[in-house]
Amino acid sequence: MSTSTSSPLLKGHGLPSYEQITPELVRQDIPLLLKELEQQFTDLEQALRSRLDSDSFLGWEEVMQPMQRIGERLRWSWGVISHLNGVCNTPELRDAHAAQQPDVVRLGNRLGQSKVLHRALCQLRDQPSEPLNSTRQRILESELLSMQQRGVGLDGEHQTAFNQASERLAALSTSFGNHVLDATRQWTLKLTDPKQVKGLPQRALESLAAAAREAGDAEASAEKGPWLVGLDMPRYIPVLTHADDRSLRETVYRAHVSRASQGNLDNAPLIEEILGLRRDQAQRLGYGHWAELSLASKMAEDVSAVEALLEELRAAAYPAAEKELEELKACAQRHGTAEADSLAPWDVTYWSEKLRRERFDLDQEALRPWFPLPQVLDGLFGLCSRLFDVEITPADGEAPVWHNDVRFFHVRRGGEPIAAFYLDPFSRSASKRGGAWMDECLGRHRNSDGSLVLPVAYLICNQTPPVGEAPSLMSFEEVETLFHEFGHGLQHMLTTVDEPEAAGISNVEWDAVELPSQFMENWCLDQNTLMGMASHWQNGEPLPQAEVEKLRSSRTFNAGLATLRQVHFALTDLRLHSQWTPQLGLTPDQFRRDIASTTTVMEPIPEDRFLCAFGHIFAGGYSAGYYSYKWAEVLSADAYAAFEEVGLDQEDQVRATGARFRDTVLSLGGSRAPTEVFKAFRGRVASSEALIRHSGLQAA
Ligand SMILES: [Zn+2]
Q: Between the CA of residue 396 and those of 190, 419, 583, what are the distances in Å?
């Protein structure tokens, strides 16, 4: 029996009492919890061992249910800490979290590599005491796959070598990331001549001057300088976008694309070692190459399916990108500059911005008064009611919160509660992680007494807080972000699956998980939805139709170049992990340049060593998975197209299609294969036609 159920951190069920969870409690209770779960797992292994020896039939409740209980205890407690670490960060909490993390990871590894558990799961699959339904079969298959990919099936020296290589890969990816960080940090350029910063917006000048002050120029100011340029995104992007001084753009661009490619920060040798080790690891596990291993747990069937999709997008984007480049040249020409004849990579962003302004004259900041948060929420909830027949009502004060800004809502269908969620909308730079995300507070599952636990989601945004009398006035981008995260939240909350391992977003393939979120984003530009929420917060004026049109057309601006860029990254990643070997006689960089010949309209310059800074695939989790961005976009665009096909103004049809989306994509979660779920909604497999059309890339 648990020693510690009175601790607010170890309660393990219900909504957490956030304010009671302190760094001291983390230090004191997490080791207790880990010890207890460790012991429970040892006991379970013991029990399974004797059951396996007797070679009898195994039941789900003998293996999966105890594992689920262990997993849920850990998820609940560690989940609260990770959540607070993201939204109420303090140095003390961060330290307490970091101190426990290695032990949490160690427990996860022990579970994931247990040979006894693996044998029991195999036996459960082959000799279940009663037939497993398809959801349970799928849960079991993915559990077995994940254990197999952790090397549970290897023995003796093979396993030792596998584990050593895994550790080496982890160290290499940390070094890779550190090299990029250091190379980014080390390069700076001090500007003292105001002519050089001409064109830069005030906000950028301020951040360059602040950087100069931090580096010792106590007197630096936005107006008089000096200004310290750097390669981090907040300083690099404005220079490339706005600096009229072409040679400044060139210098900064050359420095940026050659990051981590020289001296002791050179990532090139790491890249070769990482690719070699990954190939070895994959082959040890019986795969041909790393891409095959990566795709084994994804929706995409195999490498050729991904190649085929990327080729469809490439073929559509390439001519568009060529045309867009010509338009940029024409724009430069109109401005009477010599650059027009020899447009270089450091000119593209700059002239794109000029052309964008000329064409759309769209000032995103000026639209904020039309998007006050309360109205946007009404619009979003109204849409959910139309499409999914759910009623969302505020329930502030009914749940413990971690900050005064946090709100709580109930979700009901036909009067019955089905879920709830927290919304933490505003940025708090001192204590809240940047970006936006959805996370699970509670997942849908049944207690041992059969009672149902309803899902609760965390929806976290970082939008502009209210100032004075005014409510939070959102940029259109912030509106899209809120809809995006709410899409993830809907999949978590509207699930009808009772098995926690497959409810909501659990067990949903990685390249399919952005389907509901990107799907919801599409509605921001739907006429009914947009006009339903966009009216001036003071005088109630609707957003002028001209602005709506600008928002729509700016969405496809330079879509050819943008799509091609993503295709280039995705294809490079995929082929490095499926085709490249040292025996080819090409370095990874040369290999990438071959791919660039058909996936860029402007050849990479010799210093461009993009791979040396491609952290997504060498320092993050995207290896042989970068294509997922586009893959999920195909699904979400095609799903939205189902509504376009019935007519967005045909209310009955829209509602019926929405109900079908709810009953398939949102409800089935990870209980069925994503291709099957998509077919159940769309009546056919996904097509890239809608994405190509929405991006304005269809052949003229
Ligand atoms: Zn997302």
A: 51, 15, 63
